[in-house]
Structure formats: structure tokens, C-alpha cells
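Task: sequence design from structure.
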């Protein structure tokens, strides 16, 4: 895969991957180094629940190859509970910890809930103004009222990527707001049993072909692509990523 394309899954700690993606008998401490043999990027899901200990971030860096990259979700305390208000301390702690990944750190993801609505535009603008310029960021909104020029121009101003999310209730607006794009294949949680992620259960051949075409076009335009699949998209996110990688290579 070319240098400007970073594809992977959302998280790696799934017991149901053992025996199909991870070799039989793989223990949890070996999941990440085994994962890194197949893909060169990961979206860390666990940071949504809490900022990891500094030693944990150092361990992630130590067990992955030089060309491996991490993206990570902001903790829910910041995006969902405080919704950016009075969250300076939590934000600083999170950013300091993530920077321990060094040159393996990719974009950091601000994923907001539906309750974070367009009338909070000024709150978002003030928060983005405080973010360091030496880290890249992506923003995902789940209220379609955000999808207007004022929002997109705010992201462009700060060189922040608008997340292209394949989510059932959000319009697919293919807008690139900086020199990279961030794609998330999410699906519907109700369609896939929790922690039964051992195989593809929902074929999405048509959608995968369309996304692969889009990635190929962005690559030709010089846009760096970061893309991460959730298990709920098809049932087994490693298979989703492999299918997209193969189609993009073919183009």
C-alpha cells in the first residue's frame, strides 16, 4: 500500500479474532504485535473510555514496527460528558500521553454524539483554537445540522479533517477540508452480535467498491487517506480492510 494510505481497524482487543485473524492460542498481550504484521495503522478505541497510562502508550510504541501508525479517539469525558466545556485538564493529559507515541502518532479523533448540536459552534471554535499545531486532528459529528459551509470552513481554517463516516443515519458528504481525509466504516451496532466478530455477516461489496474508488481518486489528488473499519460494518473488520486494500491496489 502506498505511503499516503493508512488503513486499519477500530481496536485490536477482540477474543473472537483468535483462530481466524490471530493465530489460534494468541494471548491478549500478543494481539497488537500480531495485528501489526497485517496492517500499518490502528484506531485506538480504548482511549474513548479513558486516557491510558503513559507506560501503556510507550508499550504500544515498543511492540510495533517503525512504519506503524496510531490514531486515537479523544476520551468521552471531553467529547460526550463535558462537550469541550472546562475540559482543558483532561485534554492536556490526553495529548501529553498520546505524544509519547512519537513519530508513530497519526491524527487524533474528536467524535461527538448527536447531542453535540450546531448551536455549539462557538464552543467548538474556541476549543479548536487551543489545540497544538504539531498534532493533526479529525472531527466527526453525528448531527446533520452541522453539515454547512460555516462548519467546513472552520475545519479548513485549522487544517482539521472532516470525518467521512459510513453511518446509517448520517448523509454521506464527501468533503475534504485539509491535506488528509479520515474515513470510518461504522455500520449499525444492532445488526451484529456483540463480540461475535469472527466472520463477515453483512456483504457490502457495492459500498466497498465505491469507497475504494474514492480512496483511489483522493490518492491521485495527493490527499493522504486514513481509514478504519468497525466490526459492526460487516461483522469482521479485518476482512473489510483487506477487501478495500485489495481493490485500491487494483486501481
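Answer:
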Amino acid at each position: 500500500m502506498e505511503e499516503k494510505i493508512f488503513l486499519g481497524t477500530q481496536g485490536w482487543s477482540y477474543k473472537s479474532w483468535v483462530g481466524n485473524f490471530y493465530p489460534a492460542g494468541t494471548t491478549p498481550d500478543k494481539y497488537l504485535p500480531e495485528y501489526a504484521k497485517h496492517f500499518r495503522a490502528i484506531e485506538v478505541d480504548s482511549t474513548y473510555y479513558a486516557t491510558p497510562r503513559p507506560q501503556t502508550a510507550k508499550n504500544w510504541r515498543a511492540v510495533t514496527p517503525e512504519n506503524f501508525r496510531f490514531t486515537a479517539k479523544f476520551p468521552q469525558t471531553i467529547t460526550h460528558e463535558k462537550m469541550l466545556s472546562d475540559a482543558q485538564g483532561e485534554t492536556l493529559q490526553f495529548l501529553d500521553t498520546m505524544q509519547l507515541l512519537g513519530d508513530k502518532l497519526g491524527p487524533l479523533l474528536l467524535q461527538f454524539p448527536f447531542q453535540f448540536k450546531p448551536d455549539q459552534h462557538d464552543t467548538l471554535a474556541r476549543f479548536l483554537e487551543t489545540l497544538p499545531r504539531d498534532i493533526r486532528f479529525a472531527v466527526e459529528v453525528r448531527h446533520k445540522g452541522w453539515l454547512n459551509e460555516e462548519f467546513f470552513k472552520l475545519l479548513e481554517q485549522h487544517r482539521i479533517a472532516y470525518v467521512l463516516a459510513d453511518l446509517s443515519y448520517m448523509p454521506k458528504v464527501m468533503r475534504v477540508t485539509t491535506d488528509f481525509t479520515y474515513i470510518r466504516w461504522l455500520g449499525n451496532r444492532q445488526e451484529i452480535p456483540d463480540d461475535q466478530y469472527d466472520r463477515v455477516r453483512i456483504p457490502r461489496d457495492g459500498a466497498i467498491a465505491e469507497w475504494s474508488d474514492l480512496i483511489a481518486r483522493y490518492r491521485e489528488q495527493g490527499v493522504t487517506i486514513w481509514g478504519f473499519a468497525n466490526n459492526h460494518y460487516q461483522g469482521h473488520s479485518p476482512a473489510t480492510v483487506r477487501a478495500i486494500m485489495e481493490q485500491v491496489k487494483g486501481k
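The chain has a mean pLDDT of 96.
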